[in-house]
Amino acid sequence: MVRRFLRPSILKISSFLTFATAVLLLLISAYSSAQTDQGAITGVVQDSTGAVISNAQVTATDIDTGLALETRSNNSGVFVFSPLKIGNYTVSASSTGFRTVSHENVHLDIQQRLNLSFTLTAGKGRLRGAGPSDSGCCSGPGNQH
Questions:
Q1: d(CA 18, CA 23)
Q2: For the whole prediction, is pTM greater than 0.70?
Q3: What CATH superfamily is the domain 37-138?
Q4: Residue ranges of the chain with pLDDT lower than 50?
């Protein structure tokens, strides 16, 4: 008699576990596929002597949508935009007492990690770079322009 009552409970638990596992697998696959259309832009902000500039404001603006993301460089002058949707960006860096420097038409591909260097010079105003094809702008594996 005890077996007759336990058997339906075990079947219910087994069915629930099967359903929960299927839902979990669907969620994991959806999350992993959402990550494939992204990359990262990272780099260092320094002055003309090569000293790093901490707390510099760095902005990545999607050229196609106009969406602008902002971050600050850390104590080592390093900034990171990750994850970042693939596309075309203008990336600029600025800090108090320095001219703003921009890299325009920066193209970010799927799973790419771009490394941009910014050298800020003293003064006010804005300097524009031609983009990542400039020598010294971008480095790292997979950054062939």
A1: 9
A2: no
A3: Carboxypeptidase-like, regulatory domain (2.60.40.1120)
A4: 130-145
